[in-house]
Structure formats: C-alpha cells, structure tokens
Write a structure and sequence with these properties.
Layout: E1 10-16, E2 19-25, H1 28-37, E3 42-43, E4 54-59, E5 69-72, E6 75-78, H2 87-98, E7 104-114, E8 117-122, H3 129-138, E9 142-145, E10 148-152, E11 157-159, E12 165-167, H4 171-174, E13 186-187, E14 190-193, H5 195-198, E15 207-216, E16 231-237, H6 242-250, E17 254-260, E18 267-272, H7 275-289, E19 293-297, E20 311-314, H8 317-326, H9 335-340, H10 345-356, E21 360-365, H11 369-385
Parallel strand pairs: 2-4, 8-15, 15-21
Antiparallel strand pairs: 1-2, 1-3, 4-5, 5-6, 7-8, 7-9, 7-10, 10-11, 11-15, 12-14, 13-14, 16-18, 16-19, 17-18, 20-21
C-alpha cells in the first residue's frame, strides 16, 4: 500500500437492527457503493450491543499483487477469478450481515403503509414488486421497503428497511417519477436511488401488519407444497469439476442435476427434496473443495407477463407463513434459526405464525399494474368497513 489518498483503508459502519458490521477495503470504490446503497443504515461508530460487530474486509489485491479476497472476522475467502464489481459479491456481503440479525424476521418482500396500517407484498424477483410499490407511492402510500420486510419479534410490527432502490430504466416513467432518473447513478444496468429522490418525505415509520399479499405468477400451475415435495434450486459457484458434481449427485435428496455453462459462472440447476438440508451439504462441500458459492435461489420461475387481469383471493394464514418462510433471508445459515431456535425450523415457523396471525392474508395473481394497485389499495378501504 503506497500511502496516497486512494490507497488508504476505507471504512464504513452499518447497523441492521441488532447487528453492526464494520466494512473496510483497501480501495475506496468498493465502499462507495455500500454508502450509496445503505446510507440510511450508516452510523459514525459502533455502539455497545449484545452481539459484537462483524468485521468484513474486501482486499482488492491491487496494491500487494495478491488475489482478491474477502476476510470475515479473520476467516479468508478467496475471490480469485471473480469481478469485484459483480453484484454477487455485494449481495453475498449483505446476506452475510443480515444472516446474523436475530431481532427481526427478514422476508424478501416490499412494504407500504397508509393510516398506520402496513401491507407486506411477498414476491419472488421479477414479479413487479418494486413497480407496484412505486405506483402505490404515487397514490399516496408511505414507503417502508421494496426489498425486505423486517418483522419485529418483540413488537410484531413491520419496520422500515430503507435500502436504496434499484430500478430498471422505464419503470420510473411507468409509475410517474421520470424526474428521479435524471443524472442518477447506474449500477448493473439499474438506477440506484434513495427513496427521497423519488418522492420526498414518503418514508414511513414502523406500523402494524394489516395485510399480507403473496404474489403468484398466473402462468404457473398452482401446486400444494409439503416438505417432501420436489423443488428446484439454482446454485451458482465460481467453478465445478467432475468430483464435485458426482458428490452432489450422490446426496439422497437430489433427483436431478444439470449444469449450465453458458453464463459467466456455472449454474447448477437441481431438482431435490429437503432443500434446506441439501444447501447445508453443498456449502460444506464447497468449503472442503475451496469452491466459492456465489449465490443460490430456491426456485427459478418464469417471469409473469403482466398482461392478464389480476385477481385477489383470500389465503389461509398457514399457506401464507409457508410462502414467507420460502423467502426467509438468511436461510439455513441464519443466527435466528441456529442460535435462537437451535436449528429447529418448526419453532421458527411457530413464532412467525404468531406474528402473521394479526394480518389478513391474500394471494394476488399478477397482472396489469393499474389493476393490481387498485386491488391492493382497496384492501385498506375494505378494512375500514369491517
């Protein structure tokens, strides 16, 4: 390291509920993105807490001639062959941090509110969650998140998760906020925008959970799921070899494994049962063989076309909890699951069910934007008349 300003260690401290993370790097540009994405989570210094701060360091290798690496609490993971500007690295760091959060259930979902009542919009990626959130903001709702629902374990309210929004070109025009994209930073082909830049003072406080809406792609057949159902999971690694693939195929949960080599990194498309257990086994094999697990997704689904007439139906709380757990962030590595519930997923399920009990649950068949917004808006008006 040379001692010029650009070579100095750069650091940012982020606080996600009960977990603090000290993130540093030998190159400023890797920290600047986190400052843009998580400015509302940034604190000046780590404060005393029940849990010690995590320490993550991105070593770029630009100044010492070594391979890039990530150092988490002293444990080194090589990033050789991985582009540090790639979204996988940043998402994995976020997932590592939030997997330590114990005070909240973190669910992949958007959240909006009105008159102190929260609506949680639970959906997979590319199902229009962010677009619908923006349309509802235009209609006067308050913003809590377009990405993550933070359900408080103590107060059973849904809390803001004001990460900067990542928005595809065209979405701002579609939802009536074209001015927000002017001179906005772009990362991985999407605008990166703080919510105030989209609509001033629309960030809302923690609220009670009045409605939970589970998005469904109408193109997919509705299937009743049990813990023994076959599921599709997609695992992304930095490299594969025959011995690694043969080992995965021998796991008793695996019914089929196909490798897609057409992308930047190998994608393992797996049909299996008991996917949580399987992911733990795959992760252990990656550690043993020094293979970097970049990402995983429990189910790869086709994108909705958004051209159908949407429909909103009542949904049982039991089914809603199952769908929310399928999108539980932190997964099998979660400190909430492993430390608070001793790895017992049933205990985690039961506590989440207690939080969901206060809400009305619905299934939304994805369709045209305006009609979806009408249906979701109507939930709060119908609540007043109950």
């Amino acid at each position: 390291m040379t001692g010029s300003n650009q070579d100095k260690l750069t650091e940012i401290i982020l606080k996600f509920y009960d977990q603090t993370a000290v993130l540093s790097s030998d190159s400023a540009k890797y920290i600047q993105l986190f400052q843009q994405m998580y400015s509302r989570f940034q604190i000046e210094k780590a404060v005393p807490s029940v849990y010690p701060p995590m320490k993550l360091h991105i070593q770029s290798g630009l100044y010492d001639g070594t391979a890039p690496r990530l150092i988490l609490d002293g444990v080194v993971t090589s990033l050789a062959g991985i582009e540090l500007d790639d979204g996988y690295i940043y998402e994995n760091i976020l997932n590592t941090i939030i997997s330590r959060v114990r005070s909240h259930f973190l669910i992949h979902a958007g959240v909006i509110s009105r008159h102190g009542q929260g609506i949680v919009l639970v959906a997979d990626s590319a199902h229009g969650k962010t677009t619908l959130v923006l349309e509802l903001l235009r209609r006067g709702f308050q913003f809590l998140s377009d990405e993550m629902a933070a359900l408080g374990r103590e107060d059973r309210m849904v809390h803001p998760f004001p990460r900067s929004l990542r928005i595809r070109p065209g979405t701002l025009e579609l939802t009536g906020f074209p001015q927000a994209g002017q001179d906005a930073p772009i990362w991985l082909d999407k605008y990166l925008l703080d919510i105030d830049r989209i609509k001033k003072d629309c960030l809302g406080p923690a609220v009670s959970i009045r409605h939970i809406v589970i998005f469904q792609n109408p193109a997919l057949k509705k299937m009743k799921r049990t813990i023994d159902d076959q599921r599709k999971i997609m695992v992304v690694v930095d490299r594969v070899d025959d011995a690694f693939l043969d080992c995965i195929r021998e796991f008793k949960q695996v019914q089929n494994l196909q490798v897609d080599h057409s992308r930047t990194y190998p994608f393992l498309n797996i049909v299996a049962s008991h996917t949580t257990t399987l992911l733990s086994q795959i992760e252990a094999q990656c550690v043993q063989r020094k293979i970097l697990l970049l990402n995983y997704q429990r189910e790869e689904t086709s994108r909705p076309k958004f051209d159908a007439l949407p429909r909103l139906r009542p949904m049982s709380k039991t089914d809603a909890v199952r769908e929310m757990l399928r999108r539980f962030l932190g997964g099998h590595k979660s400190a909430l699951l492993q430390a608070e519930f001793d790895g017992n997923s049933l205990r985690l399920y039961m506590e989440l069910a207690e939080i969901v009990k206060q809400a009305s649950c619905h299934q939304l068949s994805v369709g045209t934007l305006s009609e979806m917004a009408d249906l979701v808006s109507g939930l709060l008006f119908s609540s007043k008349s109950e």
